[in-house]
């Protein structure tokens, strides 16, 4: 459990606030984030990188709430985006466009224009076709686009196949064997300016060896380019450092940074990193209330008011999230399937959990700050959850719960049918 979530007098607290009080005030399901946890994670990165020119670009896709983006912007963060919408979120939250890197395999003309108008730091280009398109768009605007190529080093990240991005069978990046030729091509394009090289091999990595293997392969390319007169200003080594959901033992941020800096010894390029999950994952929980207890011949079900539309990771990845009682109650401990009300067998939050609960008990689904709210949907016409940020003893509603009326406000009935 993150240090910022702990029990006091049988009640689970976030910082100085009882989670039960938040549920009473804002209802359930509800995401709750700790500002102190967000700040602590970012400062671990920045402190470990002291003395090295660097930029920490928070991966917006992990959690794009404006309040979270604003916390990181105030700390001096840059941002790693994968859509024009994420760029607009960053700007609305007070982020600096000159600290934005734009990743993603499917950038549209409109998104490129938006980013060029905002004067972002760099496009992480992921294909030869994207080079051509970006050069044309920049030319039409009378601009020069700063670029790096996202190189696929064909390194096994040893993570879930859905979140592995650095193998040659993945859709991301340009092939390692084609990178030098593509850099030559970009070097000859009048509306592109080469500034760096990018590499990202996947998410929820729990050991440093894949990172270092990727760095070593990337540096061979850097040297090959240098021999041809193509100098790079920065190296973007991506993100992907994992967190503890159950019993994983990922390296500490300081150890991860030390390993990277060791591999980069003697290199002068600015270092860009794109952490996401490791900054927000354990900084948030999802509050949910037990609606029914349904005993069965083989399994007991605790039916809660959160569902796969609120937290997709268990259904999508069979991911594990710790589930803790918000208030330690004196019920009999039993083994439960924690499931939601959605009409899908895959709608579950956790399997085979030993809990002392009853109808109306509150539960906290732990480690839900990353890819929880950002992947949520309105399936079964369910309004998305409220979001709350706690700062010491203060509770801030940072996203109101949606209403059903908002969900169909843009829909039209055809007259005369």
Q: Any overview of this molecule?
A:
By secondary structure, the chain is α/β, with parallel strands linked by helices. It has two domains: 5-33 and 281-407, Lyase, Ornithine Decarboxylase, Chain A, domain 1 (Beta Barrel), CATH 2.40.37; 104-273, Alanine racemase (TIM Barrel). 28% of the residues lie in helices and 25% in strands. Strands 4, 14, 15, 16, 17, 18, 19, 20 and 21 form a nine-stranded mixed sheet that branches. An eight-stranded parallel barrel has the order 5-6-7-8-9-11-12-13, surrounded by five helices. Helix 2 runs parallel beside helix 9 and helix 5 packs across helix 6. The longest helix is centred in the middle third of the chain and has 19 residues, at 209-227. It is globular. Mean pLDDT is 94; it is low at 162-167.
């Amino acid at each position: 459990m993150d240090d910022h979530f702990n029990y006091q007098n049988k009640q689970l607290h976030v910082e100085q606030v009882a989670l039960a009080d938040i549920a009473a005030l804002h209802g359930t399901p509800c995401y709750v984030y700790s500002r102190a946890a967000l700040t602590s994670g970012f400062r671990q990165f920045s402190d470990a990188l002291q003395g090295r020119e660097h930029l920490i670009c928070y991966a917006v896709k992990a959690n794009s709430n404006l309040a979270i983006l604003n916390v990181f912007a105030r700390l001096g963060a840059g941002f790693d985006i994968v859509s024009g919408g994420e760029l607009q979120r960053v700007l609305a939250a007070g982020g600096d466009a000159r600290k934005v890197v734009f990743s993603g395999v499917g950038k549209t003309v409109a998104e490129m224009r938006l980013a060029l108008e905002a004067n972002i730091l760099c496009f992480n280009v992921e294909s030869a076709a994207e080079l051509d398109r970006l050069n044309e768009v920049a030319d039409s605007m009378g601009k020069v686009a700063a670029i790096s190529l996202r190189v696929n080093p064909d390194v096994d990240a040893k993570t879930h196949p859905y979140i592995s991005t650095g193998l040659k069978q993945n859709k991301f990046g340009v092939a390692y064997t084609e990178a030098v030729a593509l850099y030559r091509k970009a070097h000859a394009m009048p509306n592109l300016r080469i500034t760096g090289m990018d590499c990202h091999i996947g998410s929820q990595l729990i050991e440093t060896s894949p990172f270092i293997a990727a760095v070593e392969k990337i540096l061979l390319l850097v040297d090959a380019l240098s021999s041809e007169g193509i100098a790079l200003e920065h190296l973007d080594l991506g993100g992907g450092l994992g967190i503890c959901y159950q019993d994983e033992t990922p390296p500490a941020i300081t150890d991860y940074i030390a390993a990277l800096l060791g591999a980069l010894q003697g290199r002068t390029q600015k270092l860009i990193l794109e952490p996401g999950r490791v900054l927000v994952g354990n900084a948030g929980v999802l509050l949910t209330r037990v609606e029914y207890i349904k005993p069965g011949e083989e399994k007991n079900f605790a039916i809660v008011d959160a569902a796969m539309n609120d937290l997709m990771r268990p259904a999508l990845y069979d991911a594990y999230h710790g589930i803790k009682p918000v208030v330690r109650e004196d019920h009999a401990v039993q083994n439960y399937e924690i499931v939601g009300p959605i009409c899908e067998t895959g709608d579950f939050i956790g399997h085979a959990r030993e809990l002392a609960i009853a109808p109306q008990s509150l539960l906290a689904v732990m480690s839900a700050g990353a890819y929880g709210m950002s992947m949520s949907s309105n399936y079964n016409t369910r309004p998305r959850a409220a979001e709350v940020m706690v700062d010491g003893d203060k509770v801030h509603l940072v996203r109101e719960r949606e209403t059903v009326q908002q969900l169909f406000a843009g829909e039209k009935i055809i007259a005369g049918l």
